[in-house]
Amino acid sequence: MADLGISHTHANHYGSVPAKKPLSMRGKLQLGINAALLAAAFAFVAALVFGLIG
User: Fold this and answer.
1) What's the CA gap between 21 and 14, in Å, rounded?
2) Is residue 38 over pLDDT 80?
3) C-alpha dist (Å) from residue 23 to 6, 27, 31, 32, 33
4) Concatenated DSSP letters for the chain?
5) For the residues 7-18, what does the mean pLDDT come to?
6) Whole-number mean pLDDT of the chain?
7) What number is the average pLDDT over the span 34-54?
8) What distance in Å separates the CA atoms of residue 9 and residue 7, rounded to the nearest whole number?
9) Angle at the Cα of 20 (from 35 to 34), degrees rounded to 5?
10) Which of 27, 41, 18 lies closest to 49, judged by CA?
11) Does this model's pTM top 0.85?
């Protein structure tokens, strides 16, 4: 492999391994809103496909 000039001890600093952090309240809220929007979009497209709308 190519020598990038960084040691393995410092490789994590550059984001090669994502750090797991517990979700804050704001993160949980955003996750819930995103999930709800995704579910609503899916339901809308499914209703269009099956002729329930329009």
Assistant:
1) 17
2) yes
3) 31, 5, 9, 12, 14
4) ----S--HHHHGGGTSSPPP----HHHHHHHHHHHHHHHHHHHHHHHHHTTS--
5) 60
6) 82
7) 94
8) 5
9) 10
10) 41
11) no
Do 54 and 47 touch, CB atoms closer than 8 A?
no
Which residue, chain included where needed, has tokens 């490789």?
Answer: 11
Residue that has been written with the tokens 């952090």 in this structure: 21
Distance CA 54, CA 39 (A): 20
Structure tokens at 40: 């609503």
pLDDT of residue 28: 96
Please give the single-letter amino acid code of residue 26. R
Tokens of 23: 């979700």
